[in-house]
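Please produce the structure of this protein holding uridine-diphosphate-N-acetylglucosamine.
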Amino acid sequence: MDRIRLVGGNKLNGRIPISGAKNAALPLMIASLLTDDTLTLENVPHLADVEQLIRILGNHGVDYSVNGRREKQNEGYSRTINFTARNIVDTTAPYELVSKMRASFWVVGPLLARMGVAKVSLPGGCAIGTRPVDLFIEGLQALGARIDVENGYVVADARNRLTGNRYVFPKVSVGATHVLMMAASLARGETVLENAAREPEVVNLAECLNAMGARIEGAGSSTIHIQGVESLSGARHKVIPDRIETGTYAMAVAMAGGDVLLEGARADLLQTALDVIAQTGAEVLPTNSGIRIKRNGHAIQPVDVTTEPFPGFPTDLQAQFMGLMTKAEGRSHITETIFENRFMHVQELARLGAHITLSGQTATVEGVKTLKGAPVMATDLRASVSLVIAGLAAEGETIVNRVYHLDRGFERLEEKLSGCGAEIQRLSS
Ligand code: UD1
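Below is the modeled complex.
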């Protein structure tokens, strides 16, 4: 299993190109199931989760080519991928495939809308909470689907076509919003989704679906109107820059010090997090080509944060922010409201000398003057990169084990950081 070795202490200076967003690319890829035409996606990041979803879609009969080639050769990064679901050959998504990544459960929406049936294994993914699927089930039932949960599978039937309806999400869910938006696009009549997720990835998906011929209004607000259409066509669509990757590197610079341009980053996708980073004492300078982050000399100031659905502070940046706060000049409180078990990085940060106590859903971080390198273990995708952030400012060597978590969501992490002066490399085994 690969490991990452890093030696802390270097400032970061230079440029880091921001990749296409994993969390936008995955639902966009799944949208290819809605049409028998080709959906061309630009700026798709090269990540383990994307490769896994390609395998899952392939199982349903989706053909693909990367940068115009069928064979995977010299693919590079920021790829353009064509997805063609000419014939859906299988409406079952098996446990072996779905258990590796929660988002693959989302195929349930398009399969049901286009084929009238779907059988999808209950999902897996990061172990950050129970992550049920009740909202998906309830929402699809509201559109007229018959749903049974049998032997670990969600078995859905809408052979007489889904029918538009009003559905009020009892809780904001990004995934359930994606799925209901996709399903309702091919339903009979109008669907109104209330208390929908407002994340930029939802907007990116709605824009793609509209380019495919869907009639969706209001994505990005909490009420989304969808007029169902008979069929959707192909389209060409670009994946937005990754706001979580952007925030992660911004926090890395705030931690290590230095001056880095995050190329291609968009401030409007993570304004709350950027405001928080500025409060810690770093300079945040949006430019035409990206966002410049600087911190020279000033101590890191403690800031309290609470995670919230967009436009609030994202749960996917909570671990990284805690990494930054471990060296703040004082005490900060970090409250997690989205997932109930998303503090597994706390004990790993403690190995580096961090002082953190947990009480319910709030972590209290007492900043320390010095962190010291140590072997640590990545426990989930975002937690693993918080260890990298802490390691960048720790004295001596940090070894991050179980790097496969990082590979699910961060493209070329070592290359991007070492290009800015960090001492970091991958140890392959
Ligand atoms: C997506 C993101 C993930 C991010 C999360 C919250 C992708 C691929 N993943 O995950 O990185 O951390 O949004 O911003 O885009 N819930 C239910 N019942 C359901 C569905 C969700 O109770 O049927 C709960 C979840 O357990 C959680 C909350 O709703 O407590 C929000 O989850 P949700 O927004 O659905 O997260 P994901 O879409 O899985």
